[in-house]
Structures
1.
Amino acid sequence: LKLQFLYFIGYLIMVRITAIIVSLFILSNAKVPKEQTTDQLIDMCEAEITHDLERKFKGTTLAFVTPWRPEGKEVALKVAKKLTHISPFWYHISPKLIPSEDTTTWEVKVEPAVSTGAGSPDKKWVTDMQEKGVKVIPVFAFYGWTKVQLAKFFTDKKSGTVQHSVSRQIVTTCKDINCDGLMLDWGLVPINDYYEPLNAWIQRLLGSMRKFITRPHQFMLSVHPDPTHFSNAVFESLAPSVSKFVVHMYNFTGPALSHGPNAPISWMKDLLNDWHLIDRKDANDLVVVVLNLFGREYRSEFALDVDSYDVETGDPTDDQGRLSRWDITGSQLNKLLKDSKNSGSELSHEWDPTYKEFIIKYATPQGEQRAVYYPSLRSLNRRIEMIKKSPALGIGLWELGSGQEYFYDLL
């Protein structure tokens, strides 16, 4: 009886694994209908996360967690065997004016983005991730800088003192949480304008890391996917100093447009070609291409009618101050679908063959037209297959907790 029971359990496991493989194949590779029912979409949203499959991608797989989505830390623990690196977005590097008669006196502080609560730095979680074999690379983001302040940081005659202070604070923080390196995030700052003094500062920062931290560490640089911000010449210049470049390739619409796909695959290929990375053989695993797990929702009637941008968030608004675009997570999409079903409103789900993304179109009970561009197994798989073709590229995910749980099966 015991042997029969074991055979039965083995049979159930094999059935489960076979079902997962078949569903992944169908959703990722089959010809997806141009329209799907709301019930089908809800079933996809509520598909369970699976952790029993071996890691498929053999290069770098880096994921981000953020203070505003602290549930991402729990997701990271669940999918740890799919990851090589995890980057908590925990720290800001911010300019601070010092009260004095001279209003130009200032200093730069390295501070937690969130100082308390679930989204704050968590040393136990760092240890837990490391015990699962994942390297923890916290993000230090330049936050709240003006162009004048940034120029002073790199070119002012006192910039060496300020840079030394920032380096010391970064090293102290990394040593305190016992992490495996750090990532500098520049946001929309054009690195092209400052790459020579930046490179010199990076060398001094790395020297301090080697001097005071005995644990092996990696240095990563997060850059904006725009050749006018980060050119191929700058890439080549900084490459010897950087363990990995991290490129967030999902803001195609950027601040200029309020409607459109998140990351058209042709746009991604063009950017990678600008840096000569598609066919490159001498830059193994040097660039992490970050894919979006979240989607974006748009008010369709303001497709290209952006009057201004929200002061705090930078989101586009129309002439009446109403948001034209906002991010949407997996759980929010599921709620949207259920609300649409319960209200009886029409909803379509279409594959855009040009952009290689899905778009959901629906109307609110008030009759306002909406469009949602949201990642799927099919769209993510297309991008992952593109990344796999180049040994120079790794996979990044922004951000854990924002996508559908079954997305991780592709990794």
Note: The first helix runs from residue 2 to 29.
2.
Amino acid sequence: MLKTFSRVLKTSVKQSTLNYVPMYNHTAINKVCNSSREAVKEITDGSFIGIGGFGICGIPENLIRALNEQGTKDLTLTSNNGGVEDFGIGILLKNHQVKRLIASYVGENKEFERQYLSGELEVELIPQGTLAERLRSAGMGIPAFYTPAGYGTFVQSGGFPIKLAKDGKTPLLMSEPREIRVFNQRPYLMEYALKPKFALIRAHKGDTAGNLIFRGSSRNFNEDMARAAEFTIAEVEEIVEAGQIGPDEAHLPGIHVDRIVKGEKFEKRIEKLVFSNGGKVELNGKGCERGWVRERIGRRAAKEIKDGDYVNLGIGMPTLIPNFVEENVRCVWQSEIGILGVGPYPKPGQQDADYINAGKESITVKPGATFFSSSDAFGIMRGHHLDTTIIGGMQVSKEGDLANWIIPGKLVKGMGGAMDLVTSGSKVIVIMEHCNKQGSPKILNQCTLPLTGKRVVNMLITEKAVFEFRHNDIFLTEIAKESSLEDIKKTVECDFHIVDNLATF
């Protein structure tokens, strides 16, 4: 009798797991809109809108287009960056529909940069991880939190020009300083949650109840935006009936989605289409006239990667490093777009607009790779789970300060994830050319450009030398075979120590 009951119980549990039968016969909520225009019609002038995506990966392109055609203006937008001039958020900027943009990175959008430097656009630049966490906190009902990112920079002190006069120099509106608290002898900045009125996001698939599945690295900021906003509109490539997305399959539950619409037309552009060249490293293309310098730096930096390391590579020169890592070194490349296990560039025909790295380049992923949200990506950094960070630089001081995100009045790129990375607790390796284009030193007594982080650099690699930072001081540990100690002294502004066993590379 007992065995029979046990057998029946096991069978019923198995069946209920495979075939979910609702206890009630109520009709599921239907959140489907007929068109993108219908979905955004209640967004009015002056609204605060969060827009998902990273560059142009995972952006709700149809909803943005509908908002553009609707002509809604004086908008405050928050998004990771401003996309490109003729696509995504770029078309809203070009049409002068945006009053303020809260972002972490300007990127390659020249119109974005032009409007800011000419006083036409208010820009609030904040660290990428801070942006992701401010959104996540809003969705979780947490009014504020503390982060180490931005300590010792404009983010902490305030005074960054949010709005400039037409001359591009005179600030009319400045950022506010942050409150500082010390925990475990480490300073942290207090940041407030960021809660948009509306969120426009994109997912791969959704059901009529609003449950969503994302695909690849297009997940990025979309999930955090949806949770944060008061009213979320999701654009998807496919809509299915409620129940056709299993309870364990949904990445975002429908409670966070108020409307869902199937996009009318998807371009799904790739901002930087890069192909694999059979393992060879091409360093002589446009902008790479000094390719030998990049190769030398990349090869030396690759020696710092150890077997089993989890490593984040910054954009630009650091992306070359995987080409030079020894074959017997097994490591996992992390990208702040939300990937663990970044692989090589795709072969022609294998590119996928949903597989993009933080440099907005086309990529593949390795076996065992995982995708996750932007807030999870920066949680990995902030939680001290990375072993090594390799990042580019404009200037480094003798105490290990780093500047790499802006040249006031000339170049506005934004800090992106750099401020989060250099405070992640990982080993921070900066790679850069030894001198600037004018031949002036970039290794200084004090950085003259706005800081990315204060006393954050552990190692600096140039084409001429390797320096380590110990106890807030700088030590020359290696010198290139073609360089001389005299040359290094002439091309470094600050005094430095020389280790007894000075090596060559």
Note: The CA atoms of residues 277 and 442 lie 33 Å apart.
3.
Amino acid sequence: VIGGRIIQNDSRKEEMSGAERYLLFTSVLTVTEATAGDGGEYMCHARNRAGSAEDKIGVHVLENGFIHLECADGNTTDAMLGTRHKIVCSMSAYPEQVELAWFKDGHRVDRSDSNFLIESHGLRLDILNV
């Protein structure tokens, strides 16, 4: 317990056999109810009689969520009359629960409209007949 919060370090050992015999350890550090002060550089360090090894990871504690959305073709794309055209966007967000919707000229594109197909969790809009 650190600062009244539970800090948990779980370790697991597995024996591996075959041409080489060795032990595989897995260690998980869990910080419950993270605060801004928990952000920083963490290091996992291991040693035995053969030597030592370590790896580091930076942790950013987000006080507020974020969302970033970007369409693959930028702000403008060209479509040939009478063809199928795809518009693809990529998104990153935290928290990950995001409601995605497409709009055309200020009006929401209805999933039941037969001229449109919304796929890939809402990130791709297919215009079936431009």
Note: The mean pLDDT is 83.
